Amino acid sequence: MRHIQDTHTHTQRYRLRGFATGLALLLVAAAVSAAQTASALRKDEFKLTVTALDAATALRMLGLELSYAEQEIVYYFDTRDRVLQAHHLTLRARQPGGHSADSTVKLRASAGTLELNTEERALPVEQDWTNERGPSAARSINHKKIENSVFDKVVTGLLPVKELFTDSQRHLVATRVPGVTWESLEPIGPVQADVWSRQAQLAGFAHPVTVELWNLRQGEREQQILEVSAKVRVNTESEAQQLAKQFFAATRSAGLGEPNGLSKTTQVMDFFTSER
Q1: What is the C-alpha to C-alpha distance for residues 253 and 202, in angstroms, rounded to an integer?
Q2: How confident is the model at residue 3 (pLDDT cuts 50, 70, 90)?
Q3: Three-state SS at 240
Q4: Where are the domains of the chain?
């Protein structure tokens, strides 16, 4: 009888081990499938920057009013001689009105122009289309829900810049630009931004667009940058190319002009650098 019980117990254990192994295999397969699905769906962003002279006209044509915009304060951070920018890195922090601040470390480069390490390749990729010729690949690490008091103290010099960024963001900077110190970074800005998030529609383009009006001021100099953009998840390169054609055709039809191929970041850095 004891032999029968031992055999039964052994059989139960074997079945449990088999069940556990089968469950583990199922979980691994599910994880691989989820990862493959996530990697298949990538996020592409299509952007058109409107020249300053046409910004007011563009807002009227898009049917947008300043009273419906959300206000943001944006700062970038770099060394005085723009070492991070030279290494394709962008550090940005913003404070949306009525919300907590956030920060971003972004690595941006056109396809094949930058050698990436293993950690950088593991970051999610977002394709930025500023013209129809092709996108640049952007990899970002974001930090949400920063206390506004910390943001205010950093941009006024009462706290070090690194307080706005997480350990993983700092690590990305350290591996990309090994010699840079956080003490050498200075705030670049401020940029006063008016944002209409997904409030506008372009004829001939199926997805809602976001419009941002960035107001730059330094001394007696002023500049406005107006950007029309749309973020869309796509499955293939051909789908992204087709959407890019539709987007820029729609912006032309709306009278918004031709893409200049420049990002807001580049124009902001150029504006605040030219005075130095």
Answers
A1: 9
A2: very low
A3: helix
A4: 1-40, 42-274
Tokens matching residue 43:
């996020």
Please write the tens of the pLDDT for every residue from 69-128.
999 999 999 999 999 999 999 999 999 988 999 999 999 876 566 888 889 989 988 999
The answer to whether residues 141 and 70 touch, using CB atoms and an 8 Å cutoff, is: no
Q: For 82-99, b where at least 16 C-beta lie within 10 A, e where not — what string?
A: eebbeebbbbbbbbbeee
Q: What is the mean pLDDT of residues 148-154?
A: 97
Burial of 28 (0-12, 13-18, 19+ CB in 10 A): exposed
Q: What is the pTM of this model?
A: 0.81
Q: Residue 164, CB half-sphere, CA atoms under 13 Å: how many?
A: 34
- By CB atoms closer than 10 A (0-12, 13-18, 19+), residue 234 is middle
pLDDT at 4: 44
| Cβ neighbours of 179 (radius 10 Å) | 7
CATH topology of domain 42-274: Hypothetical Protein Pfu-838710-001 (2.40.320)
DSSP label at 10? H
